[in-house]
Specification:
Layout (H helix, E strand, L loop, with lengths): L2 E13 L3 H11 L3 E7 L2 E9 H13 L6 E10 L7 E3 L11 E2 L7 H8 L42 H8 L20 E5 L4 E2 L4 H10 L4 E4 L4 E6 L3 H11 L7 E4 L2 H7 E2 L2 H7 L6 E6 L15 E5 L4 H6 L6 E6 L11 H8 L5 E5 L11 E5 L2 E6 L9 E2 L6 E3 L9 E4 L2 E4 L9 H17 L6 E5 L5 H6 L6 E4 L1 H12 L6 E11 L5 E9 L4 E7 L2 E4 L8 H13 L5 H9 L2 H11 L3 E4 L2 H11 L11 H8 L12 E5 L2 E5 L1 H12 L4 H27 L3 E5 L6 H13 L3 E3 L18
Parallel strand pairs: 1-6, 2-5, 9-16, 11-14, 13-17, 20-23, 23-24, 25-32, 27-31, 32-33
Antiparallel strand pairs: 1-3, 1-4, 2-3, 7-8, 7-16, 9-10, 10-15, 11-15, 12-13, 13-14, 17-18, 19-22, 20-21, 21-22, 25-26, 26-27, 28-29, 30-31
Helix pairs in contact: 14-15, 14-16, 14-17, 14-19, 17-18, 19-20, 20-21
Length: 746
């Protein structure tokens, strides 16, 4: 028999996913010899055997790898034979300036759930049960390669039983780095709101009892703390809102199992697949007709964000007859997610009655991801746990750090033909979030051996992320905000050349020193040309308009009626005497910026209809406007598209007048909302037709936070396709500002 030897390099997400034990067992089954190890480039396999067995080895490697692995590249190099004896797993190696792909944190697998629920199993009710197919990865890694001593599990020495599993090739915990049990691993414990320990033989059962009697708990999970209460207890939810100073923003809800979720929401096959998959994000679901859920969970919304348990600890919380739990991020409004025990007690003691904590450190906090289904496709709203830091494969030639925006910040690093978009960092509005942002950047630089040669930032001169970029003594690449939106959609969809870009959001700095946000452009990855927008109106008071939509209602009504004497008569009954102050500000141009923001246009419509005059969270006015849509209504309002010096401007006056007329005629608000949304769809299609005539382009990319509006995204996509446009949208990355860092810079 002729013996062949090959050195095989496997690149991709191949660490922390059971790849080495998979290779070991496959090699043994095929009577191959040699070794496998982790290294900072991926996995090396040195293998000897007959040609047919090696061929079968490679076929299986490519076609049936471990479920969590994602192979990007396999390289085989023929080598002289050595005549190995047996097959082994060697120690990990580190190579300078090479990149290792890291698995995201993965929800508990079915086998581990069975372990913790089987009384005779030695991991019965153990809340840190995991194996090579599930459990913590990214949140506990300090550096690479992914070995136990380079994670926060280093301080927990495996007991003989766990070590035996770890070393046994046929065991699914073979080389599972976080492997542990109740004898040797992390522990849970209860404290009061001041951090004083509470004696409890079974802390999770104690916590469940506290939840059932109406207490609010801060629960430490996989990537940080959640604030938790019984989702059937209205008094507890109201108290949580009061303490967290979160009067209206919807809470996420964790259901015991998929059947419980189906009691309250309409769940499609795809939504069920996402809910029960390995990531287990929050999924925005349509509430059932008679869902019987407390209105306080999601005030004035027709959707509810549900998720399923994704750690053993969460599974065990539901063992005590609990059915649904509020599971909202454990932080004070605008501050980063809490993940350190002591700091959580210090910052959440005024919110939580008790703390259910554990002593496994979280190295990198990571929030829950949020997904919804539109047009039978999964659409990412917030990309974090379960998805980050998995990269997008893309042809890149330079190491560039893209610093991202101020709101819903993510950053992106490009290296070795990969784009790594970070997990959600939040809004960079305070020192704590900025420090969190900087720490995450340094962590990515460390684990991916990354040093930028250039830094990209938003064109806005006052963004905190832009100021951070200026700290680097490297070439700067300034990117206009809405060009970045469209370019990110192009990159995600692997588009080249030029497209028609529709960028709808709340705020973005325009090169003409106005506030953009309702833009129609032609874009390539490196350049753009603005060809149209909705009509500009004053933004009286600046950023405060996003919190006080009634101001935009005054501005749009003033625009619609121009200098008519009727304006005060229209406004005073709607908004009182304060509307006259806004009119005077506009007239004298005092603290009035100019904006073409689609987000502010939606805010104005919401305020005019009396739905939301002032907001307590971003996007509230437009979300509540969307929630009341009568989807059976297909009519719309008229509008004009004006051409001024080759600039196509959508005059919104007739839409505003139509809203007021229908409101005066007491038409149901659901019909008025539908007509408003249909008008936006119609003028967007008309603008694309104009641009197609002038440019010949028919590819349309949709991006921006306004496209989180499911009705708008669905109807505009359908109508564009019916008019022979090719439509591209975001799916794996958010259309909101959480996706703008995903830009390939030429």
């Amino acid at each position: 028999m002729i013996i062949n030897r090959y050195l095989i390099t496997v690149e991709g997400i191949v660490q922390g996913v059971g790849f080495r034990p998979f290779v070991f067992n496959l090699a043994i089954s095929l009577k191959l010899r040699g070794w496998v190890n982790n290294n900072s480039k991926g996995v090396f396999i040195d293998i000897e055997g007959d040609k047919g067995s090696i061929k079968m080895f490679l076929i299986t490697l490519k076609s049936n790898p471990p479920p969590l692995a994602k192979i990007e590249k396999i390289t085989c190099v023929y080598k002289p034979t050595i005549n190995y004896v047996g097959f082994s797993i060697k120690e990990s190696e580190v190579f300078e300036n090479t990149i290792t792909l890291i698995s995201p944190d993965i929800a508990t697998c079915k086998d581990c759930i069975e372990d913790i629920k089987t009384p005779c199993n030695r991991r019965y009710k153990y809340p840190f049960t995991n194996c090579t197919n599930c459990g913590p990865r990214f949140s506990i890694i300090k550096t690479i390669p992914y070995d136990r001593d380079k994670t926060t599990m280093k301080s927990f020495k495996m007991c003989p039983d766990c070590f035996s599993e770890y070393k046994a090739p046929t065991n699914r915990r073979f080389h599972a780095q976080p492997n542990a049990c109740s004898c040797c691993g992390p522990e849970v414990f209860i404290t009061d709101r001041n951090g004083n320990p509470i004696k409890a033989d079974h802390p999770i059962d104690w916590a469940a009892s506290a939840l059932k009697r109406g207490e609010i708990l801060a629960v430490k999970g996989l990537g940080g703390f959640h604030l938790v209460c019984d989702a059937k207890n209205e008094a507890s939810i109201k108290l949580l809102r009061k303490r967290k100073i979160r009067p209206d923003k919807p809470f996420a809800v964790m259901g015991k199992d998929i059947d419980i979720i189906k009691k309250y929401c309409i769940v499609s096959d795809l939504e069920e697949k996402i809910l029960t998959g390995i990531q287990k994000p929050i999924v925005l679901l349509k509430a059932g007709e008679e869902h019987l859920l407390v209105d306080e969970i999601a005030p004035k919304q027709n959707t509810i964000g549900f998720l399923l348990p994704f750690t053993p600890l969460h599974e065990l919380l539901f063992e005590s007859e609990l059915e649904i739990l509020i599971m909202t991020s454990g932080n004070i409004s605008s501050l980063p997610l809490e993940y350190d025990n002591d700091k959580a007690v210090a910052n959440l003691s005024n919110v939580a009655d008790y703390f259910l904590m554990h002593n496994r450190d979280i190295y990198i906090p990571i929030d829950d991801s949020i997904v919804k289904v539109v047009n039978d496709e999964a659409v990412m709203i917030r990309r974090a746990r379960g998805y980050a830091p998995a990269p997008l494969k893309y042809d890149t030639s330079k190491n560039i750090l893209a610093c991202g925006p101020n709101m819903k910040n993510t950053f992106c690093i490009s290296k070795d033909n990969f784009l790594f978009v970070s997990q959600h960092n939040g809004d960079l509005g305070n020192l704590e979030t900025l420090e969190h942002y900087k720490r995450n950047i340094e962590h990515y630089k460390n684990i991916f051996k990354f040093e930028p040669v250039a830094v990209a930032c938003d064109l806005h001169p006052n963004y905190v992320s832009t100021e951070y970029a200026k700290e680097y003594s490297l070439p700067k690449i300034e990117v206009q905000h809405h060009h970045a939106h469209i370019a990110s959609c192009m990159v995600e969809n692997k588009l080249t050349g030029k497209v028609i870009g529709i960028a709808f959001d709340g705020t973005g700095y325009g090169p003409d020193d106005t506030v953009w946000g309702g833009e129609f452009m032609t874009c390539s990855l490196s350049s753009f040309q603005r060809l149209g927008h909705i009509a500009c109106v004053p933004l009286p008071g600046g950023d405060i308009c996003s919190r006080e939509p009634w101001r935009m209602a005054v501005s749009y009504i003033n625009y619609a009626f121009k200098e008519s004497q009727e304006i005060p008569l229209l406004l005073i009954p709607m908004f009182g005497e304060k509307a006259l102050t806004i009119l005077k500000m506009i007239d004298l141009n005092i603290n009035c910026f100019v904006t073409s923001s689609m987000g502010r246009f939606f805010d104005a419509a919401s305020a005019i209809l009396g739905i939301r005059a002032c907001t307590t969270y971003e996007g509230q006015a437009s979300m509540e406007l969307e929630a009341i849509i009568d989807e059976t209504e297909d009519s719309s309002y008229p509008y004009d598209i004006l051409t001024v010096d080759s600039d196509n401007i959508i005059d919104t006056s007739k839409i505003i007048k139509g809203l007021l007329t229908d409101l005066n005629n007491k038409l149901p608000l659901g019909i008025i909302s539908a007509k408003f949304h249909n008008s936006v769809v119609n003028f967007s299609v008309d603008m694309c037709k104009i641009i197609r005539i002038n440019t010949g382009l028919r590819q349309v990319a949709l991006s921006g936070g306004v496209f989180q509006n499911s009705y708008l995204l669905k109807e505009l996509s359908i109508n564009l396709r019916e008019n022979n446009f090719l439509v591209y949208t975001h799916k794996d990355f958010p259309s909101n500002d959480g996706g703008v860092a995903l830009v390939k810079l030429l």
